[in-house]
Amino acid sequence: MIRFDHVTKQYPGTNRPALNSIDLEILRGEFVFLVGASGSGKSSCLRLVLKEEKPSKGSIHVLGQDLGSISNRKVPYFRRNLGVVFQDFRLLPNKTVYDNVAFTLQVIGKSRGFIQEAVPDTLKMVGLDGKAQRLPHELSGGEQQRVAIARAIVNKPQILLADEPTGNLDPTTSAGIMTLLDRINAGGTTVLMATHEAGIVDQMQRRVIELSAGQIVRDERRGGYGATSAVPTITASSGPSADSVPTSRPAAAAPKVPVEVMQHAQPLYIEPEVSDEVTDAAAAVTAAATQATPVEQPPTTMTRPVLPATKHDMPEQLTLAEKLGLRAPGENPHETGEQEVGPTK
Ligand SMILES: Nc1ncnc2c1ncn2[C@@H]1O[C@H](COP(=O)(O)OP(=O)(O)OP(=O)(O)O)[C@@H](O)[C@H]1O
C-alpha cells in the first residue's frame, strides 16, 4: 500500500539528509505510528507519501503507483485517495463546518445531491451533528480537529495521513480523537500518524516505526513509544560545520496524554444501534467512508543501503485545494471560493 525503496530526502542548502536510505512497507489496513525526536524526519516521510516532496534518491510506491511516474498534472487525482489531517487543523476560517467538509467534494466535482448526503452523514460520524452551520472559531480545538478529520474522510480515502493531529489538543480531547482514528482504521483505512504522544502510542500498541536522524531505528509490530522523547533534536543543518552547531529547533514536545486518560477515552464517533435508523445510516457511512478491506501482515525484515540526494520543489503559497492535493498548483479554481490557508486559530 505504501512502499519506500532506499528513499533519501535531502533539502536544498542542507548538508545532512532528512531521510537517509529508508526502506519501508506499510500494508493495507495497518495503523502505524511514526515516532522520533523533533527533526528526525517524520513530517518529511508524510510529505513524500503525499507527493508534496520528491525523494532525492530512491522510489516510493503508494496504492500500487510509482510516485515518480505520476505527472504534476495527475498528482491531484492521485491525492484523492489520501486524507490528510494536520496539527493546526487548516480549516477555511470564513466557511461553516458544512462548507469546510463540502469543499473537498466540490473541488473534485461531486454532485450537489451527493454532497448533501455525504457531508451531514460524515459530520454525524465524527460527532458534530448539529454544528454544521458554525464557523471554525465557534468550535473548540477538538471540534475543529473533528471537522478536519471529517474533511479528510468524506471522500472515502484508502489512506489517512495524520501529522501530530493531537498536538494542539488537551489530553482528554486527544484521547477522543484517537478513538475516532481507531474507528476509521477499523473500517479498513490505512492510518499513518506522526506523533510525540507517548501515552497514545503506549496505550494503542500498534505498529511503531521510530526514526532517528532520518533513519529507521525501530519497527515493531505492536510497540510503545520508547525513549524517543529523550533523544536530542536532530537538524538537517546547513553549512560545513553544521554538525557541531547547536540546533534552533525546539526539543520534542513533552508527551501530555497519560495512559489513564487513554484508557478512559470517550468515543467521539457514532456507534450503530440496531433500532435506530439514523445511527444505522451513520454506520453505513462509516463503513463506506472507510472501505473495509482485509488487514495484511507487515513485513519483518528491512534493508537500508545508503544513497545521496538532490532538491525539493513545491511552491510556497498554495490554496487549500492545492494543499489538500485536490487541484494541481496553478490550475484554475472554479466557484468553490478558494483562499490561502494557515493555522485555523
Ligand atoms: N523545507 C525544508 N527545507 C530544509 N530543511 C527541512 C525542510 N523541511 C524539513 N527540513 C529539515 O529536515 C529534517 C526533518 O524534518 P521533519 O519536519 O521531517 O522532522 P519531524 O520529525 O517531523 O520533526 P517535528 O517532530 O519537529 O515535526 C529537519 O532537520 C528539518 O530541519
From TrEMBL:
Keyword list (alphabetical) reads: ATP-binding, Cell cycle, Cell division, Cell membrane, Membrane, Nucleotide-binding
What membrane topology is annotated for this entry? Peripheral membrane protein
Note the InterPro entries from the entry: AAA+_ATPase, ABC_transporter-like_ATP-bd, ABC_transporter-like_CS, ABC_transpr_LolD-like, Cell_div_FtsE, P-loop_NTPase
Q: Where is this region: Disordered?
A: 224-250, 291-345
Choose any GO biological process term that the UniProt entry carries and state it: cell division
Composition-biased stretches, type Low complexity, lie in: 291-301
The GO terms describing molecular function are: ATP binding
Indicate where this protein resides in the cell: Cell membrane
**Coiled-coil region list:** none
Q: What does this protein do?
A: Part of the ABC transporter FtsEX involved in cellular division.
- Outline the subunit composition: Homodimer. Forms a membrane-associated complex with FtsX.
Q: Which family does it belong to?
A: Belongs to the ABC transporter superfamily.
Q: What is this protein called?
A: Cell division ATP-binding protein FtsE
Question: In which organism is this protein found?
Answer: Luethyella okanaganae
